[in-house]
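Internal tracking record. Fields below are filled automatically when a chain is submitted to the structure queue. Please do not edit lines marked as system-generated. If the sequence contains nonstandard residues, flag them in the REMARKS field before resubmitting.
Queue: standard
Priority: normal
Entity type: single polypeptide chain
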Amino acid sequence: FFFFNDTATTEIYTEQIVGSVRCVQETGINAEYMGKQYLIQSRKIIMPPKKKEEVKKKVVLGRPGNTLKMGIVGLPNVGKSSTFNFMCKMSVPAENYPFCTIEPNRAQVPIPDERFSKLCEIWKPKSEVPATLSIIDIAGLVRGASEGQGLGNAFLSHIQGVDGIFHVLRAFDNEEIIHHEGDVDPIRDLEIIHSELALKDLQILQNKIPDIDSKIKRTNDKNAKEEKAVLDKVLELLKANKWVTAGEWNDAEIEILNRHLFLTSKPVVYCINLTKADFLRKKNKWLAKIQEWVQTNNPGPIIPYSVEFESEIFGKEETKTNEETKEGENPPSMLPKIIKVGYKTLNLIHFFTAGVDEVRCWTVQDGAKAPQAAGTIHTDFEKGFICAEVMRYDDFVRLGNENAVKAEGKYRQQGKEYLVEDGDIMFFKFNPPKSNKK
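SYSTEM-GENERATED OUTPUT FOLLOWS
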């Protein structure tokens, strides 16, 4: 028969099931069916509730953290420093000669977010703190940089310090602006940067592998063997002039890769610098070829823009979005889009805390749980986490105030397993740490 959690229960239900079967045999009812139904009802009482399956956080390539950086990379004189100036509203040298930028320039750039502006409009707070992205202007790389050409080793080390890449490509002709390779060919320029970063990773890897081999030979260490297997896969990719991002990796392998942070494991946003005329008419002879190369070799977002156009509107008040631009009008600046795509490419999102004192964005990695989000405000919030009170931005704006959100049942209390969503408005409850004073 059927067995339950203890002998006594089994005997009781067995006796009752057998009795039921004998009883229904006399009436002609299907005895087997009745027995099964009795068992089903019994199990509903006896069996414990199923445990909820824990959502496993996806492991992604790259350094974990909330304070990640994007680096602006490209050949000399393609528009990197000018782009950096317009993004950051700064004025760093952007002259018409190679290696104008030697030491990297750094800036914290606000993330454009209409939701943040709307919350500030509603609350009229004393303090407004937007989300920001760290951007670094890195000097131009040239062919042979991995061998030290053009101060290449120093510049490659600057790329090592960032978490993602804005790759600026020149797709316009202008005799007054020197091109380091002599003529304009963005496909060739793509190949140069792609290959130089792969070659540098290959050099670093070839120096690491003998040390790991020695450790395996000396200790037969299991972890070292697993690391060696992953690095061998990386070695094959790099020898084929492919990036780490081109490989297929499981979570355990990604955790190993994240200990090394290869240059070719960084995500790339391709920023295509056009003439003003090409940008306004949305046509350029190189765009289709660039798209094909990117999709084939190292996929990533492609954003056409124009430094020439940006220079004309630089400093002017830009309030229109692409959707608000009327036919015949010039489009808005593309820099807010570039910044937002870079932020998203780093797997970053933000939640809000909002009130009359302050409206603030707090950056977390996509997939962060509520206690981790609380920890971005203060470590005590994470240590003593009780719960998070959460409402969706859309619900708050639609209903007008917090009380209306509560009245409609949209104001929720969430526990430790809650995954923060981009745009959540959150309030945390926590136990303050105990004082050590006697």
